Amino acid sequence: MTASEAASSAVADRGRHHGKVALISGGARGQGREIARLLASQGADIALFDLCAQPSTSQYAGATEADLAETVAIVEDLGRRCLSRVLDVRDHEAVADFVGEAASRLGAVDIVCANAGLVTWVPFLELTPEQWGEVNDINLTGVFNTVQPALRHMVERLSGSVVITSSVNGVEPGQSIAHYTASKHAVLGLMKNLALEFGPYGIRVNAVMPSAVNTVMGNNSTNLKWIFGRDDATEADYLAATRQWHVLRNQPALRPEDVAETISWLCSDEARHLTGVQLPVDAGHLVLPGFNHEPITE
């Protein structure tokens, strides 16, 4: 066994992210919680924050402080340290202060998972400036607010990994989500620019593009009514319908764990040669041929 193989084996024994510190936005529930759970199980200490309230234009319930406390308990039950805060990702100064506290109390910021997000379903001609602004402030400016202060710490250490959560709507349109689609396209451009700018410091910046995921963000009454055109649609209906989104056999909406596993790998040394990558986590959704959802027949 070579020295590098021995080192890799030792890391595997201790956990893929042993000794690292991961910062996670939108960490109270859903995808953020599963990222925290997985990285902690692989040896990382966690700093996470969430709004723990419903944004003013949101069409589904926001995370709660109880959700955040539950995620903290999950991490601590895995034997890892967890720093948490009720925090608005749109508040640049507050996020920067939390990042600084995480670096000071936990020793570093090695991994950033810019995961906080919001989607609402509004036809473009009905979209208000408030609805446009809130989605883009959370999904785009929130990424800036999370990543910039973390990169300051990473530059000093000449290492780090950032993973931004985009969406398949970062490369394709979606019905009645122009504002969301714009924000998810934008973060891919930001990711590529950051990969270029910070590669010389040994910092990798990538993005994941999930398709339908079975969390409150997708599986909620507003989205179900939009999909099915009725008020009584259920989770079973949602899972059945999302099979049509995927090319892989019998694949409904992804589990949040599926996205977390991809993020964990992207943040790991196993992906050390990857930067500037926009990685679909979509069960083949993006290779499906397009079709006209509303053909003109006259």
TrEMBL record:
InterPro entries: NAD(P)-bd_dom_sf, Sc_DH/Rdtase_CS, SDR_fam, SDR_subfam_1. It comes from the Bacteria. Gene3D superfamilies: NAD(P)-binding Rossmann-like Domain. Transmembrane segments: none annotated. Keywords: NAD, Oxidoreductase. It holds the Pfam family adh_short. One of its GO terms (molecular function) is oxidoreductase activity. Coiled coil: none annotated. Belongs to the short-chain dehydrogenases/reductases (SDR) family. This is Mycofactocin-coupled SDR family oxidoreductase. The lineage of its organism: Bacteria, Bacillati, Actinomycetota, Actinomycetes, Propionibacteriales.
